[in-house]
Write a structure and sequence with these properties.
Blueprint: H1 14-22, H2 38-48, H3 63-71, H4 81-84, E1 96-99, E2 114-117, E3 121-123, E4 129-135, E5 138-145
Antiparallel strand pairs: 1-2, 2-3, 3-4, 4-5
Helix pairs in contact: 2-3
């Protein structure tokens, strides 16, 4: 079989790897993504004990989770509207506080904007209403109502 006309010079960085895949070109390896539940993240961080000094400070993602992704050589990151949003005052409930980090469905290192009420209910920017339900193996967010 003939050699490729444009051989890959070596391992790509994550951005180059993903861009090659998006262009339907063959990267050095398949780009990897990773999502996990809070329980899995907590266990990974405890096991890996990642060096967060190489991550740098950010108000948009959890440095320990980002360090784990780098340790696992994960290429993809999720960027979502709710990392950056600042909803209008009219969207805020009087009985709620803004919660960026303690969101059970946050499966990535990114922060997620939610409102949390005193009883523990969550409301997202679009008005979806969820509640945490615990079971013997963990917990999940259950839909209570939708807008």
């Amino acid at each position: 079989m003939p050699a490729p006309s444009n051989p890959d010079p070596g391992p790509a960085n994550p951005r180059a790897r993903v861009l090659k895949a998006v262009r339907h070109e063959e990267p050095d390896r398949v780009p990897v993504d990773f999502l996990a539940t809070k329980e899995v993240w907590d266990k990974l961080i405890q096991h890996v004990q990642p060096d967060i000094s190489q991550v740098g400070a950010s108000e948009f993602f959890d440095p320990a989770r980002e360090a784990v992704l780098r340790w696992l050589q994960v290429d993809c990151r999720v960027l979502s509207y709710d990392m950056f949003c600042q909803p209008p005052e009219s969207a805020l409930r009087k009985d709620a506080m803004i919660e960026w980090w303690d969101v059970l469905s946050r499966s990535t290192p990114n922060r997620m904007w939610r409102q949390r009420t005193a009883p523990g209910d969550f409301y997202e920017i679009w008005g979806r209403h969820t509640r945490i339900v615990e079971n013997p193996t963990g917990a999940y967010e259950e839909l209570v109502s939708f807008p």
